[in-house]
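Quarterly update from the structural biology core.
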Amino acid sequence: MKSFTNPLSFLLFLCIFLSNAVAEENEEWIFNVTVDGNPIGEHRFKKTFLGEKTVIESEARFDVKILFVNVLKYRHQNTEVWESGCLSEIESATRSNRKEFKVSGRRNEESFSINTLDKDTIHQGCLYTFAYWNPDFLLQNKLINAQTGEMEEVTITKIDTESDSLTGYLINAKGGPIKVWYADETWIGLESTLKNGRTLSYQVAI
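Predicted structure, tokenized:
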């Protein structure tokens, strides 16, 4: 995650980022992804408004190499449909090297069914994924992992920053701590600690 300890650097970053933002029906985020500062790929998100529905499509493509040998090939595609501030549908497919994940979920009246390759579950109420693009997800204490379909308990706290425009939050989740960053409520970055202790970072492409 890019450091914003220098206020002038952050303000320059913010001005460039906001100057590229377009108020349209559709929005798109493209994040450059690194591990310990080394580029591994990108993660794209697209938001489309269809009447009362909001459709979020995302695609991640990561390749981790050591001495020119590809040790991780990761591909992830996810489509979420949101209605009235709640998740109504989810379809995802993920391949991490040879391991595959599939998630299919639907809301039916007050319940939400999730089907994976391993099991089927039913949940109640208004559900959220790790929807970083929507700051409202920060109010939740349980979130759906879009890759595995698992409902994870989370605790979320605000991070002190030196800027009034930059806001950060710490998410303690099953997979490890995650820091997510916003500039005037627009998602601009993410940082997480992997199980092997390495740092995975997302930085918005500008």
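Residues 7-204 form one domain.
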